[in-house]
Task: inverse folding
């Protein structure tokens, strides 16, 4: 025990752990009465026998005032002391019982959890078996009939498909409900006992009490009664909860079996068509007297009865077979004709009559055998009629089905990464989908992380530090009783639950540049936009991110030194990165060991450096990284490699030193007969290439069979032989991919060959034996684009519909095609793959396109990987140099904001430097910090308040239907919650971020619903979604903060007035702007009046209500919002006036039918707006506009008058100038008063803007 007290039980050289185990065994077997230590060592308090419990210090699991007194106390008082157990005996007995209960309940709790996991595994195995059945049923050899036309109606593959669909639908509906019920009804009571009640009792009786005192007999008796009462109470509680759990378990098991029986009972037998019977075949006709009134299911015989009949009477076996055929025909006909679950339920009462008894069956056969000839032809005709009706119904269903939308299917096999240990191994390709339902068009596999690219250009990530934190949360939540939160956290532990890379989404929203290519290394990631800009993030060790330092980056950041170039391809190695530009230049950065950078030395580089040691005239079209080496493919089909050569991965033969500069693999030309290379992929220590003749070659280390040649070490290119007759003409190989230790090749018809490390099922062959020869996998559609991404222990394949690539701008595609024609190139292309880990997209001429540019989903010719090099293109007419300078200015502005302003916001926010930077536009990454401070929290919104109104919104939605049916009206506008779901898809629709499938849909819906309940006088008004969406885009990680900013923003300046939808109050602003327009541009003002635009409210309301978010691009509108937070509504007046001036020439020459739609930015005039109202032109014009002092003062009085809204009922105060004159100012409820003071203090800020603009 002394060793135990010294903490030596964890020391490997000490026997304290064994001694402690012996001691615990002794205590358990001797009723918790250990002997006195021989050496006089003091035992821990928890191990000492209890001798005394002070009643006033003890706690009970009940709060009864008569604690310590049982109904039998009076009787027990008359018992002899000899009849009672001594107090220490009772205490020890209770201790042992509690320990026993705790151990058993914990074991039961874990056993139930194992049961849940095993049930889920069983469901998954069942689905895998049915997937294989469906795959076999779809083979042409299985579906095509060769007898006659009637046999062509055989629809067995449809039967298999329906079976898989039925099981999938059942699992989708029942499995979540099963897990929920099991958590709540079965695990819940056990968890409360084992994790709450018993630990609390142990804490009470093991820690807080001293030894029992034998001096006072009365105290002893009271303690005995108390212990007995505690035991009795615990007994009742434990018995009740365990029985409830057991009852729930049995009921849940029965429900699961009954559901499976009801849903899948109709698929027990495969459909068989009626056949012509010979006269020698015995036929059993059905009795119509009592069976036609039932469901057709009642005619079938059970499989057990059929077996019994066949075993007991072989003479009647043929008759039984015919009976089975007929019953199956009628059963399937009934199912196809729409015999639903209702009929199945109604017929359960007749289950006893549905199956014939053996003797009755034989009697029926004997009785009706004589009538066989008369009924045979009639019955066959009826069977044909039933089958015909079934076919018609199925044909109608096929016609009535809506046209399928373009889809993307993801298949996975092997052991994908997971934050939980023991991830199940998938031995065959299994179709899965992301939890959020996004359509994936590209996947990149890193070491233990994944990147997904969606059809909308958004990037999702899994496996980074955020997911590791989630794993800790999961472990902590397993001991909690919040089962709902535990389940939601559990869902995030799967690679199918990635999180959005929000910074790239913000860039997409602001600059309209989408991600076109993603790739991963071991610990870093990169993405390339369709504008040719490179983002990197992850581990910065050895400079592999290319930012000029070795800092880790948790969020994507542009590589500044490559902004002058147009990046078209990139690849990640173990600790280095290779980048290919549109000019055909290869840039390298990261770890330089073994010469993997190809720069002539072993030094690391933290910024991109071009490789200049290629032979003269070489034009690189594709680059791929292995773990510690690199390969490049040029336009002539030559392969260049450099880096480590110790395992033969460079294919340069038996060399004893690393290759530090690119070197051509000349031996490949010899063994390939001069054929050029069209594709290359690199693994950890091996390389695989595909040549134009369709042959595969590999070299490197093949200890797991990844070379496909049967060799363990092959430093020179060797041909990979496919199995004989495994590839049928005209199909041919078109792409190769490599994981760390396995390889994959695909054909035009999307047949796959896999070989290499298969211990985790990464080859998808249905077993775990490594393969040193290619083996065929044929389970993918030939009508879609097949994209493969190989990880370390797993493989992911995508079947992408070509229409999903339509989000690529037509202008980019047209430009690419035009330039390709100038270069004499065939535009048919195919998806790229990062050779080692990632799958990427084709790119053309400096502009990376997020999809294959060919129109046909099936490519019929093999093509070389990569793109032709050209000069860097301009983006929307902006030279690359200008883009670089703009990014440099943005970086400098970020630094000034962080170092000069945000460090002490209260002191620096009103300085001229802050105002100058503010008016130039707050950097997007800084807005999440500046906007909440600029908006403020005058309303004192707290997180608790947000949670309260969030719960109210959820409760209102739940009870809304009942309230509408009862006609209950609560006086508020909470009913407008129903409009939010309809309005969200119309919020920035081109971004596809806020519709039902968008990543921010739930976020924005929650914020708006909460606000509608927080301000029931407003509810939800169209236009709010734009303001909330802009806040959401910049603050996507905190819903409370977004709600706080929205609530305070809505009462600032003019916004509350415009969302009240009160024409009289809003007319004040219209009158002021009309006066402003008339004073500055009287001719334009008069012209608009003459053509019929009598009031600016016809277009100005939309501008001011949404802060120009509906008419200006988001990047411009966000900068307008920045200035609105600084200057208030007056800046919106200046912006509106600037738009009038920019559109003025066209407005002056237009009539009503053109001018009003132009001002409203009708879709017909979007190009006109984009051309005339550019960012530079707009803000240059705003800088020249000054609001007259009388309009500025009147506007300030209206904004800051807290009694402005109370004059709505006063007829004398209604109308323009009268209301303005009456509004005499007052205390501001927002930031308007502060802005007014700022304008007075800094009247020359506009002039300073030009002087300090360099900052």
Result:
């Amino acid at each position: 025990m002394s060793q135990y007290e010294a903490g030596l039980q964890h020391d490997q050289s000490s026997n304290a752990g064994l001694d402690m185990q012996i001691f615990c065994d002794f205590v358990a077997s001797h009723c918790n009465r250990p002997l006195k230590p021989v050496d006089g060592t003091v035992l821990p308090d928890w191990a000492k026998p209890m001798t005394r419990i002070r009643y006033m210090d003890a706690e009970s699991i009940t709060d009864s005032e008569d604690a310590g007194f049982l109904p039998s106390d009076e009787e027990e008082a008359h018992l002899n002391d000899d009849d009672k157990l001594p107090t220490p005996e009772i205490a020890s007995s209770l201790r042992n019982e509690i320990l026993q209960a705790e151990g058993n309940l914990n074991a039961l709790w874990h056993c139930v959890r194992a049961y849940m996991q095993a049930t889920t595994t069983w469901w998954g195995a069942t689905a895998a078996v049915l997937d294989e059945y469906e795959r076999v049923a779809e083979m042409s050899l299985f579906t095509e009939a060769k007898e006659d036309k009637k046999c062509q109606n055989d629809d067995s593959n449809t039967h298999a498909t329906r079976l898989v669909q039925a099981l999938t639908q059942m699992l989708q509906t029942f499995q979540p409900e099963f897990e929920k019920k099991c958590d709540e009804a079965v695990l819940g009571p056990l968890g409360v006992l084992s994790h709450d009640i018993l630990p609390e009792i142990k804490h009470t009786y093991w820690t807080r009490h001293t030894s029992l005192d034998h001096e006072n007999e009365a105290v002893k008796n009271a303690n005995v009664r108390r212990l007995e009462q505690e035991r009795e109470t615990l007994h009742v509680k434990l018995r009740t909860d365990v029985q409830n759990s057991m009852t729930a378990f049995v009921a849940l098991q029965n429900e699961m079996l009954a559901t499976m029986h009801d849903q899948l009972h109709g698929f027990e037998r495969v459909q068989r068509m009626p056949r012509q019977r010979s006269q020698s075949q015995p036929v059993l006709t059905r009795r119509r007297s009592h069976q036609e009134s039932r469901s057709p299911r009642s005619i079938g015989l059970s499989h057990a009865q059929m077996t019994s009949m066949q075993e007991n009477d072989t003479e009647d076996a043929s008759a039984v077979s015919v009976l089975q055929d007929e019953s199956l025909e009628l059963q399937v006909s009934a199912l196809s004709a729409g015999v639903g679950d209702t009929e199945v339920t109604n017929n359960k009462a007749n289950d006893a009559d549905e199956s014939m008894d053996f003797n009755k069956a034989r009697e029926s056969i004997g009785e009706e055998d004589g009538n066989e000839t008369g009924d045979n032809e009639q019955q066959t005709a009826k069977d044909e009629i039933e089958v015909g009706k079934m076919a018609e119904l199925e044909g109608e269903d096929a016609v009535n089905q809506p046209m399928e939308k373009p889809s993307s299917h993801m298949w996975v096999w092997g052991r994908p990464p997971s934050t939980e240990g023991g991830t199940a191994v998938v031995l065959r390709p299994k179709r899965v989908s992301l939890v959020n339902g996004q359509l994936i068009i590209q996947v990149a596999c890193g070491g233990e992380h994944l990147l997904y690219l969606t059809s909308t250009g958004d990037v999702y990530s899994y496996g980074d530090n955020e997911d590791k934190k989630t794993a800790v949360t999961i472990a902590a939540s397993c001991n909690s009783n919040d089962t709902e939160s535990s389940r939601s956290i559990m869902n995030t532990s799967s690679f199918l639950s990635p999180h959005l890379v929000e910074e790239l989404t913000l860039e997409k929203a602001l600059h309209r540049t989408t991600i076109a290519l993603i790739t991963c290394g071991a610990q870093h990631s990169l993405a390339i936009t369709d504008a040719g800009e490179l983002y990197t993030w992850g581990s910065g060790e050895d400079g592999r991110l290319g930012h000029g330092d070795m800092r880790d980056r948790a969020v994507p950041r542009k590589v500044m030194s490559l902004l002058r170039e147009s990046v078209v391809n990139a690849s990640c190695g173990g600790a280095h990165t290779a980048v290919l530009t549109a000019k055909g230049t290869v840039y390298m950065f990261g770890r330089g060991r073994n010469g993997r950078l190809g720069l002539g030395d072993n030094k690391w580089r933290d910024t991109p450096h071009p490789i200049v040691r290629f032979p003269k005239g070489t034009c690189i079209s594709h680059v791929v990284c292995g773990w510690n080496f690199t390969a490049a493919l040029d336009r002539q089909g030559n392969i260049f490699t450099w880096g480590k050569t110790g395992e033969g991965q460079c294919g340069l033969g038996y060399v004893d030193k690393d290759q530090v500069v690119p070197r051509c693999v000349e031996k490949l030309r010899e063994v390939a007969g001069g054929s050029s290379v069209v594709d290359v992929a690199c693994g950890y220590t091996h390389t695989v290439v595909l040549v134009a003749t369709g042959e595969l070659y590999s070299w490197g280390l093949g200890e797991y069979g990844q070379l496909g040649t049967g060799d363990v070490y092959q430093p020179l290119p060797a041909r990979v032989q496919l199995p004989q007759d495994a590839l049928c003409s005209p199909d041919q190989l078109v792409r190769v991919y490599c994981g760390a230790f396995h390889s994959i090749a695909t054909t035009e018809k999307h047949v796959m060959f896999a070989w290499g490390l298969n211990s985790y099922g990464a080859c998808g062959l249905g077993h775990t034996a490594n393969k040193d020869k290619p083996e065929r996998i044929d389970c993918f559609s030939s009508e879609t684009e097949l994209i493969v991404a190989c990880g370390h222990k797993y493989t992911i394949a995508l079947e992408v519909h070509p229409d999903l690539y339509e989000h690529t701008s037509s202008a980019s595609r047209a430009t690419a095609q035009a330039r390709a024609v100038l270069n004499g190139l065939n535009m048919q292309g195919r998806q790229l793959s990062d050779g080692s880990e990632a799958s990427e997209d084709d790119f053309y001429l400096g502009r990376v396109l997020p999809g294959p540019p060919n129109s046909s989903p099936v490519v019929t010719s093999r093509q070389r990987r990569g793109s032709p090099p050209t000069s860097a293109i301009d983006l929307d007419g902006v030279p690359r140099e200008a883009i670089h300078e703009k990014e440099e200015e943005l970086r400098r502005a970020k630094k000034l904001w962080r170092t000069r302003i945000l460090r002490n916001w209260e002191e620096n926010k009103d300085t001229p430097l802050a105002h100058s930077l503010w008016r130039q536009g707050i950097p997007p990454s800084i807005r999440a910090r500046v906007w909440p401070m600029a908006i403020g929290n005058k309303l004192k919104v707290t997180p608790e308040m947000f949670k309260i109104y969030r719960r109210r919104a959820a409760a209102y939605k739940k009870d809304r239907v009942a309230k509408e049916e009862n006609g209950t009206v609560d006086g508020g506008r909470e009913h407008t919650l129903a409009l939010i779901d309809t309005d969200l898809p119309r919020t920035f629709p081109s971004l596809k971020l806020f519709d039902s499938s968008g990543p921010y849909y739930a976020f924005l819906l929650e914020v708006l619903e909460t606000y509608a309940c927080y301000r029931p006088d407003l509810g939800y008004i169209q236009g709010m979604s734009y303001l909330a969406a802009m806040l959401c885009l910049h603050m996507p990680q905190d819903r409370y903060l977004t709600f706080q900013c929205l609530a305070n923003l809505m009462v600032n300046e003019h916004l509350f007035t415009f969302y009240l939808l009160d024409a009289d109050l809003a007319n004040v602003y219209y009158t002021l702007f009309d006066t402003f327009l008339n004073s500055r541009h009287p001719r334009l003002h008069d012209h608009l009046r003459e053509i019929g635009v009598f009031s600016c409210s016809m277009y100005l309301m939309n501008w001011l209500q949404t802060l120009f978010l509906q008419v200006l691009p988001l990047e411009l509108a966000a900068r307008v919002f920045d200035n609105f937070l600084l200057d208030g509504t007056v800046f919106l007046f200046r912006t509106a006036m600037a738009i009038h001036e920019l559109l003025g020439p066209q407005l002056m020459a237009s009539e009503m039918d053109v001018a009003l739609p132009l001002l409203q930015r009708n879709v017909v005039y979007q190009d006109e707006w984009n051309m005339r109202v550019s960012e530079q032109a707009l803000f240059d014009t705003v800088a020249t506009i000054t609001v007259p002092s009388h309009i500025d003062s009147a506007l300030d009085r209206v904004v800051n008058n807290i009694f402005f809204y109370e004059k709505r009922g006063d007829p004398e105060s209604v109308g323009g100038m009268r209301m303005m004159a009456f509004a005499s100012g007052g205390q501001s409820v927002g930031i308007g008063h502060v802005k007014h003071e700022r304008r007075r203090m800094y009247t020359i800020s506009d002039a300073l803007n030009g002087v300090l603009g360099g900052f």
Summary: The CA atoms of residues 52 and 63 lie 22 Å apart. Residues 92-140+159-264 form one domain. The chain has a mean pLDDT of 74.
